[in-house]
Amino acid sequence: MSQDRATPHQDGHTPDPDRVTLYHAPNTRSSGVLLLLEELGAPHDLHLLDTRAGENREPAYLAVNPMGKVPAIRHGEAVVTEQGAIFLYLADLFPRAGLAPPLGDPLRGPYLRWMVYYGSCFEPAVVDKARGLEPGPQAMSPYGSFGAVLDTLTAQLRRGPYLLGTRFSAADVLWGSALSWTTQFRLVPETPEIAAYVARHAARPAVGRARARDGALAG
């Protein structure tokens, strides 16, 4: 949002045009977005939803995300849903953090690949495996096979320390969060490459801050 879109409050202060509202439920997929906001140093507010009480299924939130899922963000007049889209939007919105290779950077393509690969291949593969479902015919499956997804990821991590080599990006915030909980619940095997990657993720100061915030909110 451009600066000229902001309007002064009654107290004479101009609202921050970059301020983001995160629709958040602690210890869910939206926790990854909370972590990203910490990594970006982004000004934000939290709109908490009690999913156990079904607040995410009430009309007020369904008007934000008809799927009734978190995360979702509001930035000015823009509402963004879908985890990958939110990560891409926020990392581009706060370029000073350096978590998104810009257009023209040779790493922009690989960055987009790994951001989209997460939702297109990894999550469907993990969910199917957890439910004991076969991936379906090769021509219809969005990911091919669980083994192929894991082998592709492991091969990339072997080049490490991050998905873009030596460059840490928003893709690592997304994947580090996901691999932390999928290995914790034994949905994904803890290969040496994945274990080392998860350990690097856990050591980041922003991870500690985000987990502390989530713990306090859940309590």
Summarize the structure.
The protein has helices spanning 30-40, 59-62, 83-93, 108-130, 146-158, 170-184, 192-202, 205-218; strands at 20-24, 44-48, 72-75, 78-81.
CATH topology of the largest domain: Glutaredoxin
> Order of helices and strands, N to C?
EHEHEEHHHHHH
Strand order of the largest sheet: 2-1-3-4
Give the total of domains. Answer: 2
Spatial separation of the terminal alpha carbons? 35 Å
Architecture of the largest domain in CATH?
A: 3-Layer(aba) Sandwich
Number of helices: 8
Q: What is the overall pLDDT average? A: 92
CATH homologous superfamily caption of the largest domain = Glutaredoxin
**DSSP summary, beta strand count:** 4
Structural description of this entry:
Residues 17-98 form the GST N-terminal domain. InterPro entries: Glutathione-S-Trfase_C_sf (IPR036282), Glutathione_S-Trfase (IPR040079), Glutathione_S-Trfase_N (IPR004045), Thioredoxin-like_sf (IPR036249). It comes from Methylobacterium crusticola. This is Disulfide-bond oxidoreductase YfcG. Residues 1-20 are annotated as: Disordered. With 219 residues, this protein is α+β, with helices and mostly antiparallel strands. The chain has two domains: 3-97 and 208-218, Glutaredoxin (3-Layer(aba) Sandwich), CATH 3.40.30.10; 108-204, Glutathione S-transferase Yfyf (Class Pi), Chain A, domain 2 (Up-down Bundle), CATH 1.20.1050. It contains eight helices and four strands, in the order E-H-E-H-E-E-H-H-H-H-H-H. The chain has helices at 30-40, 59-62, 83-93, 108-130, 146-158, 170-184, 192-202, 205-218, and strands at residues 20-24, 44-48, 72-75, 78-81. It has a four-stranded mixed sheet, with helices on one face. Strand 3 (72-75) and strand 4 (78-81) form a beta hairpin. Helix 1 packs across helix 8 (205-218). 31% of the residues are buried.
